[in-house]
Every structure is written in C-alpha cells, then in structure tokens.
Design goal:
It comes from Medicago truncatula (Barrel medic). The chain is an alpha+beta fold. It contains 2 helices and 8 strands; from the N terminus they run ββββαββββα.
C-alpha cells in the first residue's frame, strides 16, 4: 500500500455509549529504510563497487526487503552513477499480483592514491 492510504475496518471501532460501534481506520505511514527508498511502487538503492569491478564486471547480490536475493551482477563496464532497472523487484501493488521495479544506482569507489608502478601499469594497459 502507498504512504497515506487508509484501511477501513467497518464497525470495528469503539462503540458509542449505548450505541453502535464506530469504524476503525488505519492510515499507512512508510517508515524510512537504511538501504531502500520507495517512490510509488518502485524501490531505489545505491550499491558501491570498486574501480576494478566497474571495469571488468562483478558478481554481486543484494538482500531485498523480504530477504530474497537479487542478482545485480555485471559482465561489462559499469559507469559511475549508472542506474540499472530490475523489473518486478519493487513493491507489490495493492490488490494485484504485479510489482514495481527496483532501480540500482552504482557508485564507483576510486583509489585515493596510486604508486608510480601502478600508474605505469595502468598507462600500459589502457594507453
């Protein structure tokens, strides 16, 4: 269910003195999560990878809210701030079997220093 949506339980509330029971209403409030951000039925998260992983690919899974694993591996080059969409890995739509999507933004962790030998090797390989 979406943030702010209400659930009504007809006549499940407190009764008025010598009267009928009122309705009980719950309003949904989405709690923040440390890894995922919800936008509608889509989920967004950020994953950090190393420069080597960004250049040569990587194998990685992330644990979803319901604890199933989502494979976010890549065999190619991943650019900094690149966003990949994983269809059907978002939040379930209320009263439906469909789900939103999961969007993963990749942050690339660059080294802070390189030795002269590393610089020479990188120039040789990439030059």
């Amino acid at each position: 269910m979406k943030d702010g949506q209400e659930v009504l339980f007809y006549e499940d509330g407190e009764p008025i003195i010598d009267g009928e029971s009122g309705d009980l209403r719950f309003r949904i409030r989405t709690a923040p999560h440390e890894l995922f951000k919800r936008e509608g039925n889509d989920l967004h998260t950020t994953v950090t990878i190393t420069l080597v992983q960004a250049l040569v690919g990587f194998e990685k899974t992330i644990k979803h809210l319901d604890e199933h694993l989502v494979d976010i591996s890549s065999k190619g080059i991943t650019n900094p701030k690149q966003v990949r969409k994983f269809k059907g890995e978002g939040m379930p739509l209320h009263t439906s079997t469909k789900k939103g999507d999961l969007y993963v933004t990749f942050e690339v962790l660059f080294p802070t220093t390189l030795s002269e030998e590393q610089k020479t090797k990188i120039k040789f390989i990439l030059g």
